[in-house]
Amino acid sequence: MQAIEQELTTHWMGHPATVLATVDSTNRWMKQQWLSGVCQAGAVVWADEQTAGRGRLGRQWVSPAGRNIYTSVLWTPPRQRMGGVLSLVAGLAVARAVWEVTGLEARLKWPNDAVVHGKKFAGILVEGGTEPAPWAIVGIGVNVLGDADPAFAHATTLEAALGRPVSRETLWVSLMGQLEAAFDTWLREGDAWAAEAWAAFHATLGFMVRVERPGVEPWVGLAERIDPDGGLWVTAPGRREKVISGEVSVRLADGRYAPDSV
Ligand code: BTN
Predict the structure, then answer these.
(1) Ligand 1 centre from 142 Cα, in Å?
(2) What spacing in Å lies between the alpha carbon of 239 and ligand 1's midpoint?
């Protein structure tokens, strides 16, 4: 893993790449690097294990050694273009990398889960700020080898989905290439491009979904379309709302985590 940066064919993504045997959270590590002024856009960290991996909505991201990818990349958008759209751009890169390396048709469950055969194998956690300049850290966790933790019924790994092991190194190299391509295209083409490209991989649109927000009665509606800012329009009789990813979780109304096929 140490020589992995030499495998990259990217111009700026993954330069430099730091590989750690263990860390509390790659997102936290990268944020500390950024705030100490020792890194710039394209810096990436990949850890073999996380002892305090972070998921969305304050959840834990279980991160055992030797099996998965836990990686965080630093982006500094030229102006403040953060928010939900970054999750879309990163999700797109994950789906494309998985296709490139395994041939599996990964799908994207709004806002930022990657699923295969209806089960989650990857999650994305974007954190950002504006000091000392606009920055975003995109953390990506991919379950690659072995079987998923049986405690998470809706989780899977790429090996389980494919029926054979997948090289973490090959997948990570592909992911860096796809992240660079997606980020460059997004900067050139804008948010509408990202929403459209994401929609080509969706596992959400056209399905009845249950919207759950802490402290608010859950409700069910049709996941209609995605906005360029990453918001999801959900409609029910007498109600139409744009759901923003911040504190919401969305499941299929029939109880499934994601559709088996789209
Ligand atoms: C989610 O689906 O809830 C998002 C999970 C994001 C996990 C990744 S693993 C690498 C990076 N470091 C973290 O602490 N979290 C993200």
Answers:
(1) 9
(2) 32
Find out whether 209 and 171 touch, Cβ atoms under 8 Å.
no
Q: Which two tokens stand for residue 179?
A: 């992240």
Measure the CA–CA gap between 72 and 51, rounded to whole angstroms: 15
Which of ligand 1's atoms lies nearest the C-alpha of 57? 3
CB 71 within 8 A of CB 175: yes
Cα 8 to ligand 1 centre (Å): 23
What is the full per-residue pLDDT of the chain (262 aa) written as tens digits? 558 999 999 999 999 999 999 999 999 999 999 999 988 999 999 999 999 999 988 899 999 999 999 999 999 887 656 667 888 999 999 999 999 999 999 999 998 899 999 999 999 999 998 888 889 999 999 999 999 988 889 999 999 999 999 999 999 999 999 999 999 999 999 999 999 999 999 988 999 999 988 888 889 999 999 998 889 999 999 999 999 876 677 888 888 888 887 7
What pTM, to 2 d.p., does this model score? 0.93
Ligand 1 atom having least distance to the Cα of 63: 9
Instruction: Determine if residue 70 is left, alpha or beta; phi over 0 gives left, psi from -120 to 50 gives alpha, anything else beta.
Output: beta
Pocket lining for ligand 1, CB < 6 angstroms = 25-27, 50, 53-56, 59, 61, 70-72, 113, 123-125, 139-141
Rounded to the nearest whole angstrom, what is the distance from the C-alpha of residue 55 to the centroid of ligand 1? 5
